[in-house]
Amino acid sequence: MHIGLIGGIGPAATIVYYQRLTRAMRQRGARLDLTIVQADIDDLIRTNLADLRDEQARTYAGLIDRLRAAGAECAAITSLGGHFCFAETQAMASLPLVSAVDPLDAYFARKGFGTVGLLGTDVVMRTKLYGQLHKTGAVSPDGNLEQVGDAYRDLALRGTATAEDRALFFAAGQEMMERQGADAIVLAGTDLNLAFDGQDPGYPVIDALDAHVALLADLASGEGDLPTATKEWTR
């Protein structure tokens, strides 16, 4: 299946999607048919913070039309923060839209996680992944949520993580583990790999990007089905 990605939100996350998707397909012994279109991270930050769902959905819909014209058979948004208008986009999209949130809940439940801690954008953390976790509880940083959200936004815009970023994110995760009863910390922002890859913060970390990539690889290799691409992540 020809996969279409809405990238650029942010650029570093798009690169990681590409790297991990190509690796997953190579492990399956399958060829990847892929097209990526560029969205604007500054526009997304503006619409996300103002909750302008219809406006962002219309932008996505135009990009999805371009993916369809290029031969893509499904589309995916390479940003969990960018999923704030998923339902609105799905209603306008000319291709099936593959959610990054759907595969996570079943995975958490299968691993026995009663509660997960979320790191990501302000909106992702405040809404507990848009209220779409039904089998698993979620917590967010207590007392410094805005600071964490601002640091994540700045990281995504820069495309690099500083030592200060790592210290802030690692401490926020530790606090959720120790004081809020989280069983694991979820990188619910697709650029957080910049801070966490190759690091050991001292607690279990789940990269939500991996769940999305695994599902897209299933579709790309013919192991998954549309339009309800809800095959569980089995990392």
TrEMBL record:
A molecular function GO annotation: amino-acid racemase activity
InterPro entries found in the cross-reference section: Asp/Glu/hydantoin_racemase, Asp/Glu_race
The protein's name: Aspartate/glutamate racemase family protein
